[in-house]
Amino acid sequence: MAEQKRIDQPTGTETVGHEWDGIEELNTPLPRWWLWTFYATIVFAIGYVVVYPALPGLTGATKGVFGWSSRGALAETMEAEGARKAPILSAIAVTPIEQLPAKPELMNAAVQGGAAAFRTHCVQCHGSGASGSKGYPNLNDDDWLWGGDLKTLEYTITHGIRNPDEAETRNSLMPAFGHDGILTAPQVQDTVSFVRVISGQEKQSASSRRGAALFEANCAVCHGPQGKGMREFGAPNLTDGIWLYGGDRETLTQTINNSRRGVMPAWRGHLSPTTIKMLAAYVHSRGGGEATPPPAPVETAQAEGGAAPAAAPAN
Amino acid sequence: MNSMNDITDSPLGVYQKRKAVFPKQVDGPFRRFKWLVMAVTLTIYWVTPWIRWDRGPHAPDQAVLIDLANRRFFMFSIEIWPHEFYYVAGLLIMAGVGLFLVTSAVGRAWCGYACPQTVWTDLFQHVERFLDGDRNAQIRLDRAPWTASKVWKRMRKWAVWLLISFATGGAWIFYFADAPTLQHAFWTGQAPFVAYGTTFVLTMTTFILGGFMREQVCIYMCPWPRIQAAMTDEKSLIVTYKHWRGEPRSHGKKRAASDEAHFGDCIDCLQCVQVCPTGIDIREGPQIGCITCALCIDACDKVMDQIDRPRGLIDYATELDCEREMRGEAPVPAIRRLLRPRTLVYFGLWCAIGVAMLFALGTRARIDIAANADRNPEYVRLSDGSIRNAWLIKLRNMENRPREMTIALEGLPGARMWKESDTRESAARSITVEVPADQVLKEHIYVVAPAAGSAREDFAFTVQAGGDGGEKARDAESFVRPEESE
C-alpha cells in the first residue's frame, strides 16, 4: 500500500494514498455548504437536547430548560377545553332533563356531548348509528321496551338492564317455558303459532287457536291480553313489526323455550350524571324519542293493552 | 477547488447577467393608444372597489366584492353563491378563449398593451424618464459613480415607485371587504393581518417586477410567449420588419440618390432598438422578446417621414401579406385576415360560452334544495312496520328577503314526512318553513313510507318559494328499504 499522496492525472484530484490492486481512492471532499449544514444540525441537536425533554433517566427523561412536555401541553389543552365547556355543562347538570328541550342551546350542547359519549361507550353494542343489531335494541325506532321519553332514557342508562349489582336496575324475567318444563314442546309450538298470528305473519290455524289459550294463561300477564306488551315489565309488544331477536318460528321457539336475558351495564358510577343526561338527550334525538308524557306514564297506541289493570308481580 | 466553480467560471456558463434596458421616449399613434389603455385599465383597477351599489339591508353595498368570509361574490346586480362558482369558471374560460382569439387575430396584443406587467412597467418607466431624463441621461446616470447626487436620484425614483406599488398592493385588498371601512381600519392599525400582509407582498412584487425585472418577466418568467406560438399562424397580425424593403442597410441619412437601387430604406438609425421596452432588435425577425407593443413602428415611421420614404418599414403585417408585398402584390385587407376559420372558431366558442352563461344567469333559480341522506342507519323499521329514512335538507334562499318555502315529496306514494323538531303526528306530504334572507336553512327531516316497495325507490324533494307559480327546485333521491331476505 502506497502511503504517498499524489495527483491523479485524468481527474486532477489528489488521492488519499490508499491503493489496492492498482485502484486508488481519490480525495473528493464534501462541498463546503454540505459540511456547514452538517455542523448546523449538530448544533441544533445539542440545542434541542437542552431545550426539550430528551435524555432518558431511571425515573424519567430530563425536563428541558423550559419544562415543556407534550403530556403537559395536552393536559393544558384539556384543562382549557374543560374550562370552556364548564359553564354549559354545569347548566346541563342543574337542569332537570325534561326541561332541556325548552332550552335549545342546552339541548343542542347536550346532544353534541351525548353523541361524543355515545361513540365512546355505546357503539360497541348499539352501533355507530345507534341502530343496534340482533339482541341490541335499535335506538332510532319508535319501539321502547321501557319507554322512550328523556326521563325514562336517563333512568335506563343510569341503572342498566338486568344488572346484577344494581338494586334499581330494569329487570324483567321471562320464564324459560320450555327449559323449565312449564310448557311442553307442542305447547311451545302452539304459542309460537299464536304469536305469529297476532303479529300478522301467519294465518289462523288449529295450532294458533290452541296457542291463544296458552298465551292467555301464561303470557298475557306481562305481554297483555292482546300481546301489546307492557312497559312496566319491559315486556315487548308482540304485535308490531319490530323484533329484538327475530320473529321467525325458530327464533320465537328459542325465546319461549329459554327466555332472553339481555344485559346492559349500569352507567352510574362509570359516567357522571351530566354525561348520562347528555347521552339520554342524544339517544332521544335519534328520531325514536318520545315526548315526555303528561302525568301518567302511559303511551298512546303502544300501551293500550298494557293499560289494563294487570296487577302482576314484577317477576 | 470543486467542479461547480469550473462550470460557472467557464465560457459555457449557464447564467447571463441582465443587460439593462433604457427605452427611449417615443410618440406616435401606438404610443398614444398605450397611454389610453393604461389610463383605462388603471382607472378600472383603482376605482372599481369604491363604486357603491344599494342592495338593501341584508347585503353589502359594494358593487364589486369578493366576500370570502361570507362566501359570496357580488358584481353589481349579480350575486354568486359558492355552489354557483361555475359562473366564475365560465368567466375564466371566456378570458382564456378571448386571449386565444386576440392572439390569433392580432398576435401578442395582450402582452403589448393590457398585461399588468406591461402597464406597470410602462408607468415606472415614465416616472424614470420624468425624474432622471430620457435614455441618454439614464445611461449616463447608470454608469456614474455613486455620488450624493446619484444616491438622491435613486432614492427619489425608488420612493415614487414604492408609492405607486403601495397604491397598487393596497387597492387589491379593497376588493375583499367594504372599502371605506377597511381603509379606515387600515390607517388606524385595526385591519386584519392578512390585509397588511397582502398589501406588503403586492407592494414588494410590484416594486420588484415593475421596477427591476421588467422584460425579464416577459422573456423568462412568463409562460405565455411559449404558448402563443401555438395561437398565431401566417395570418396573424404581428409586428414585422420588412427586410426586403429595408436591406441592405445604409448608415446615416445621407443616402446617395444614385444608390437608391442598391440600398434599402433602413438607415440603421437604431431608433427601433432604443425605444424597445424589452431591448430587442425587431429587424432580426419575430422573436420571443417581442411583446408587440409597436413602439418601434412609431419610432421608425417618424424616421421614414424625415428621410422622405413611405411609412411602414416596420409595420403590423401578416406573414402572408409580407410575401404578397415582396412579390409586389397588393396586401389583403386586414378585415379579411381577421375573418378566417381559426378566429371564427374562437369567436364562436367565446360567444357560445357567453350566451350560455347569460342564459343561465337570467334563468337561474334563487332558491335551491340539497338533500343529504342519513345513511347510518340507512333505514329504520317502525313499530307499525313502515320504513323511515332521514335526510339533512339544506334550503338556500338567495334573495335579500325572508321567504316561505314549501318542501314536498314528488313520488313515493303513501310517504309522509316531518321535521325532527316535530312529532310523527304532524307528518304530511309537505312542510312549509321560513328561510331567512340570504341564508341556508338546515332541516333534519324524517320520511316514513309503507314497507311494501322496492329496496331502492326513486323520488324527489321539491321546494317551492311562496305560493303557486313561485320559484321551484328539486333534488332527486332514493328511499331505501330492507332487502326481501331480511
UniProtKB/TrEMBL annotation, chain A:
Compartments where located: Cell inner membrane
Region of interest called Disordered, as start-end residue ranges on this chain: 286-315
Cofactor note: Binds 2 heme C groups per subunit.
Matching InterPro entries: CcoP_N, CcoP_N_sf, Cyt_c-like_dom, Cyt_c-like_dom_sf, Cyt_C_IC, Cyt_c_oxidase_cbb3_su3, Cytochrome_c_Oxidase_Subunit
Pathway membership: Energy metabolism; oxidative phosphorylation
UniProt keyword Magnesium present: no
A Pfam family assignment: FixP_N
Major location category of this protein: membrane
Cofactor: heme c
Record field: compositional bias (Low complexity): 298-315
Family the UniProt entry places it in: Belongs to the CcoP / FixP family.
Function per UniProt: C-type cytochrome. Part of the cbb3-type cytochrome c oxidase complex.
Subunit note: Component of the cbb3-type cytochrome c oxidase.
Protein name from the UniProt record: Cbb3-type cytochrome c oxidase subunit
Organism taxonomic ancestry: Bacteria, Pseudomonadati, Pseudomonadota, Alphaproteobacteria, Sphingomonadales
UniProtKB/TrEMBL annotation, chain B:
Sorted UniProt keywords: 4Fe-4S, Electron transport, Iron, Iron-sulfur, Membrane, Metal-binding, Transmembrane, Transmembrane helix, Transport
Keyword NADP: no
Residue span, 4Fe-4S ferredoxin-type domain: 254-285
PROSITE patterns according to UniProt: 4FE4S_FER_1, 4FE4S_FER_2
Compositionally biased spans, kind Basic and acidic residues: 469-486
Annotated spans, Disordered: 465-486
The keyword Membrane is annotated on this UniProt entry: yes
NCBIfam families in alphabetical order: ccoG_rdxA_fixG
Name of the molecule in the record: Cytochrome c oxidase accessory protein FixG
